[in-house]
C-alpha cells in the first residue's frame, strides 16, 4: 500500500496591500468632502452686576416672560399658553416700545421652552435676557 505523502502545507497568503490602499483613499475622500457645521449655543452665563451708579431717570420698561417648573408660561404675571407667548409679547411691545424682554426659566422646566422662546425672539430681532431661576 502506498501512502500519500502529505504536502508541506499550502501557504495561501492574501495580499492586503490593495485593500489598505482603497481604505486610505476612502478615508481621504470622506475627510475632504465632510462639511463641518458651526452650531451656535445659548450663552447662559450671568452678566456681572452693574456698578453702583445713579440709575437713569427714565429706565426702559421690561416685559417678563416666565416658565415655571411645570412648564406653564406667563407674561408679566398673566398666564398664557407657551405657544402664544410671542403674540402676547408683541402686543405688549405695541404699548411699551423698546422694552427689554426678560426670559425667566425655572431650572426644572423643559429646555425646549427656553430654546423655542429664545429662537423666536431672536428671529423677530428682539433682544432678550435669560435668567435661570433656581429652587
Structural overview:
With 135 residues, the protein is α/β, with parallel strands linked by helices. It has a domain of 72 residues: Nucleotidyltransferase, domain 5 (2-Layer Sandwich). The protein contains 3 helices and 5 strands; from the N terminus they run H-E-E-E-H-E-H-E. The chain has a 5-stranded mixed sheet with strand order 3-2-1-4-5, covered by helices on one side. The chain is elongated and about 115 Å long.
Outline type: elongated
Mean pLDDT: 81
By DSSP, the count of extended strands is: 5
Determine the number of helices (DSSP H or I, runs of at least 4 residues). 3
In helices, the fraction of residues equals 25-40%
End-to-end Cα distance, whole Å, is 95 Å
CATH topology of the domain at 62-133: Nucleotidyltransferase, domain 5
Instruction: Show unreliable segments.
Output: none
State the CATH class of the domain at 62-133: Alpha Beta
CATH-scheme architecture of the domain at 62-133 = 2-Layer Sandwich
Q: Strand-residue fraction?
A: 15-25%
Order of helices and strands: HEEEHEHE
Which structural category do the helix and sheet elements fall into?
Answer: alpha/beta
Main pleated-sheet profile: 5 strands, mixed
| Side-by-side strand order of the widest sheet | 3-2-1-4-5
Give the radius of gyration.
32 Å
Amino acid at each position: 500500500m502506498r501512502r500519500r505523502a502529505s504536502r508541506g502545507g499550502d501557504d495561501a497568503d492574501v495580499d492586503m496591500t490593495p485593500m489598505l490602499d482603497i481604505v486610505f483613499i476612502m478615508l481621504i475622500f470622506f475627510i475632504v468632502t465632510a462639511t463641518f457645521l458651526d452650531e451656535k449655543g445659548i450663552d447662559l452665563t450671568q452678566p456681572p452686576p452693574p456698578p453702583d451708579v445713579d440709575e437713569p431717570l427714565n429706565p426702559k420698561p421690561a416685559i417678563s416672560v416666565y416658565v415655571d417648573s411645570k412648564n406653564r408660561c406667563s407674561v408679566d404675571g398673566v398666564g398664557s399658553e407657551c405657544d402664544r407667548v410671542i403674540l402676547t409679547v408683541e402686543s405688549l411691545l405695541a404699548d411699551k416700545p423698546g422694552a427689554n424682554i426678560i426670559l425667566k426659566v425655572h431650572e426644572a422646566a423643559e429646555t425646549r421652552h427656553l430654546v423655542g422662546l429664545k429662537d423666536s425672539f431672536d428671529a423677530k430681532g428682539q433682544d432678550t435676557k435669560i435668567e435661570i431661576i433656581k429652587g
